Amino acid sequence: MWIICAGGKRSGSTLQYNIMANMVEIAGVGKRLSHFDSKEFPAVKEAESTYKGFNVFKTHGLTAELAREVNQGNAIVIHCYRDVRDVIMSSINKGWIKEQNDTVQHATKTYLQEHEAWTTLNGKVLSRKYEDFAFSVPSEIEVLASFLEIELSDAQIQDIAEKVDRNTLKKVQSDIPEAKRRESSKQVFHSETLLHTNHIFDGSKDQFKKGLRPHSICLIEALAHRFLVNHGYELYWSKTDEFLSFSQHADDYIAWQLLGKPATGTIMEVGAFDGVHLSNSLSLEQKGWKAVCVEANPRFYTFLEQQRPKATNINKAVVSDAETKEIAFYDEEIGVLSGVTFDEEDIKKRYENRGLPYTAPKKIIVPAETLDRICASERLERIHVMSIDIEGFELQALQGLNLKKVIVDLFIIEANSEEEKASIKQFFSKWKKYRFIGRNRQNLFFIRKSVAKKRNFKNLDLEGYVRAKQFHPVSDHLSIEAVEPRFYESDQFEKIVNSFSLFS
Question: What is the DSSP string of 209-243?
Answer without folding.
Answer: HHHS-HHHHHHHHHHHHHHHHHTTPPP-GGGSS--
